[in-house]
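Priority: medium. Attachment 1 of 2:
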């Protein structure tokens, strides 16, 4: 246990992704595997919709496709903020910040400075959170669309499953890098076992396993942790 009584994030993640349900949950979410007739969750298209939010032509610009993509994860950017992102000053400020956030960089390869409170990624998250109607969940999902390998999808269910870590981005990075990147390799192995391609980021695999594994308990109990 940590000094505040929490289970270390690395240990908690290791335990959760080792579940026998991890691969079936991934297959169900993405609509692959033995039950190909099953309907995938809409979030299965989050990263890939319209070629992805991190493709070279649009990597530093929030587009209408990005705004639709976050809707597949059950959040919506309010109309005024959406217009400002597409046509206004807010979009320009986001572009300036995104230009300083590396594309194609996996969280496990990132330095702490890529994700800490002074990073351009974090500043972009703060900027989005300041907009009327955009909370921390929606802000994080929009950034995950733009940098899916670096920024995780992180919502109330995943936060609860992880027992509300104080610094989720840096904490997850540390956990993925521990023990010669054992967790990162385990998540990549789950991706292969589920029949998913590398187009699905390791961070997205992590998110889906955690979310699918805890969502029912979270809804029933309104719990603060597993």
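Attachment 2 of 2:
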């Amino acid at each position: 246990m940590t000094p505040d009584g929490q289970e270390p994030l690395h240990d908690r993640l290791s335990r959760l992704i080792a579940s026998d349900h991890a691969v079936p949950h991934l297959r169900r979410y993405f609509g692959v595997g033995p039950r190909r007739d099953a309907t995938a969750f809409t979030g299965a298209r989050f990263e890939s919709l319209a070629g992805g939010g991190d493709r070279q032509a649009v990597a530093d610009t929030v587009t209408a496709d990005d705004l639709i993509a976050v809707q597949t994860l059950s959040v919506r950017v309010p109309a005024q903020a959406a217009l400002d992102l597409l046509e206004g000053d807010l979009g320009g400020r986001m572009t300036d910040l995104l230009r300083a956030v590396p594309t194609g960089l996996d969280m496990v390869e990132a330095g702490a400075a890529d994700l800490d409170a002074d990073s351009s990624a974090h500043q972009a998250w703060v900027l989005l959170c300041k907009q009327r109607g955009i909370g921390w969940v929606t802000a994080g999902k929009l950034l995950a669309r733009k940098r899916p390998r670096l920024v995780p999808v992180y919502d109330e269910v995943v936060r609860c499953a992880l027992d509300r870590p104080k610094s989720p981005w840096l904490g997850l990075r540390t956990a993925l890098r521990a023990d010669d990147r054992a967790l990162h390799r385990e998540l990549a192995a789950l991706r292969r076992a589920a029949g998913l391609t590398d187009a699905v980021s390791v961070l997205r695999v992590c998110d889906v396993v955690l979310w699918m594994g805890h969502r029912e308990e979270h809804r029933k109990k309104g719990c603060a942790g597993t």
